[in-house]
Amino acid sequence: MRDVETLRTDRFTLRPLRREDTAALYPTFANEVQCLYLSRQAFTSEEELWGWLAEPDWNGRTWIAEDAEGRVAGRFVAVPAHEDGIEEIGYVTCMDRQGGGVARECTAALVDHLFASGLRKLTAEVDTENTPSIRLLERLGFTREALFREHETTHAGLRDVAVYGLLASERA
User: Which of 99, 97, 90 has its CA nearest to residue 137?
Assistant: First the structure.
């Protein structure tokens, strides 16, 4: 796992992952409905979740969104893609904070940060039935670039996946 810089929005601080974040994230990552669009099934213990979150060989970066009271609101990630200058983003908002603009505010800050760091393109893969995630990406200016039918077999079965992209030149 790579180091991350702390980012700030009007309501949140996006900071590096800590071991104690597992307890706050676990209710969401242990819920089958919340994990429907993950590539794996819900977690069965905090220890299992921590092992996944802190996987030492994972080459991505994790930011934890925390509000002014220190409550965890979600997890946001960036992972290097197939070539330099491109990274894939991902996000999960804690289920007790969904609908309050956490994902939009924090993902927008992450997008701005990643482009300011010199990236030329961001991508996101999303299950085609994950309407809230698709709406978020489109509101942030992402465009659907590809549709892969029956592309991925997950705990939810065979899934269609859409790839969304955003160029730095489009964000400006």
Answer: 90
Question: How many other CB atoms sit within 10 Å of the CB of residue 16?
Answer: 15
Phi first, then psi, for residue 111 (nearest 5°) are -60, -50
DSSP state of 15: E
pLDDT in tens, 19-63: 999 999 999 999 988 888 888 889 999 999 999 999 999 999 999
Instruction: Give CA–CA dist 150/63, Å, rounded.
Output: 31
- State the average pLDDT over residues 122-138: 96
Q: Dihedral angle at the C-alpha atoms of 55, 52, 116, 73, nearest 10 degrees?
A: -140
Three-class SS state of 143: strand
> Which domains are assigned to the chain?
7-171 (3.40.630.30)
Tokens coding 111: 């997008």
**Residue 52, number of CB atoms within 10 A of its CB:** 12
